[in-house]
Amino acid sequence: MKKSSEEEGVEKRPSDYVLYKCNAYWICIKPAGMPIVPDKTGDPSLMDLMSKYAHHKFFAVHRLDRPVSGLVILACSKPVAATFSKMFKAGKVDKTYLAVTADKPEPLKGLLEDTLVTAEKVHKAFITEKEDDKGLKASLSYAYLGSSDRYHLLEVQTHSGRFHQIRAQLAGAGWPIKGDVKYGSRRGNRDRSIHLHAWKLTFPHPVSGETCHYTAPIPDQDPVWSALATFLSAD
After folding, report:
1. Which of 31, 104, 130, 224 is the most exposed place for a label (fewest CB within 10 A)?
2. Cβ distance 153 to 228 under 8 Å?
3. What digits encode the pLDDT tens for the residues 168-221?
4. 182 is in which domain, residue-wise?
5. Helix or strand or coil: residue 55?
6. What kind and span of H or E run contains 51?
7. 128: which DSSP letter?
8. Which helix (H) or strand (E) holds 110?
9. How many domains is the chain built from?
10. Of 230, 187, 227, 225, whose CA–CA distance to 97 is shortest?
11. Contact 192, 7 (CB under 8 A)
12. What angle do CA 52, 199, 158 make, to 5 degrees?
């Protein structure tokens, strides 16, 4: 697999992918192009990399598409993984993403609500108008943050955890994510990444209950992200 722009240049150490760690979980920053768990390609996964680095097993508690970069939670034990699973189902984990599009959204801020069906054979989600048991309700909020000469930056918050939700819903609204040819982008990125970044996570600590906030820096060697960085708040 071709290396992403995050991986080009100086080779990263395993510790470079770790944002925070405690006895209950680790917060890692996944580069675009790296799978979270081992897959049929045999490419190095975040799970394998962190397990070798920490010398113990981790448990994945949520998904992040391979071409997407950003925050990933790895639980240090099965009980903690089960607690996170319950928190995700109960809507106690707030997820905020950054998306880059070639088309400026109109209106500049809003709520998208759709019904999605997943086609397993093509590994893709579709918006449907049918009222049946195959469709799942999907909801997200978006807000326009700013523009470079060619691209537009959106902040996206998901209110449901559907397969390819952000990719399908933004494309359905007419604003496909840069590089996401599967969902209508006019051209792909050379490294097969897409410009979608899992930016922020907020959730109660699975042991103490204390509210935890984490923010992943944007990919620092990507010129498009760099051109749009000025529109991000410092918090």
Report:
1. 130
2. yes
3. 999 999 999 999 999 999 999 999 999 999 999 999 999 999 999 999 999 988
4. 14-230
5. coil
6. helix 46-54
7. -
8. strand 109-119
9. 1
10. 225
11. no
12. 115
Q: Which residues contact 233 (CB under 8 A, 6 or more apart)?
A: none
Query: What does the alpha-carbon distance between residue 118 and residue 161 come to, in Å, rounded to a whole number?
Result: 13
Q: Of 8, 30, 23, 40, which Cα lies nearest the Cα of 205?
A: 23
Domain assignment of residue 6, yes or no: no
Query: Among all chains, which residue has been given the structure tokens 């893709």?
Result: 124
As a whole number of angstroms, the distance between CA 39 and CA 47 comes to 11
Contact 137, 161 (CB under 8 A): no
Is 235 part of any domain? no
223: tokens are: 């010129």
Mean pLDDT of the chain: 92
Kindly state whether residue 46 falls inside one of the protein's structural domains. yes
9 phi, psi to nearest 5 deg? 85, -130
DSSP 3: P
> Could you tell me the CATH number of the domain that includes residue 155?
3.30.2350.10
Task: Express each pLDDT in 87-135 by its tens digit.
Answer: 999 999 999 999 999 999 999 999 999 999 999 889 999 999 876 678 9
Q: In 3-state terms, what secondary structure has residue 100?
A: strand
Q: Could you tell me which of 191, 194, 232, 172 has the C-alpha nearest to residue 64?
A: 194
Residue 3 placed within a domain: no
Kindly state the tokens that stand for 80: 């903690």
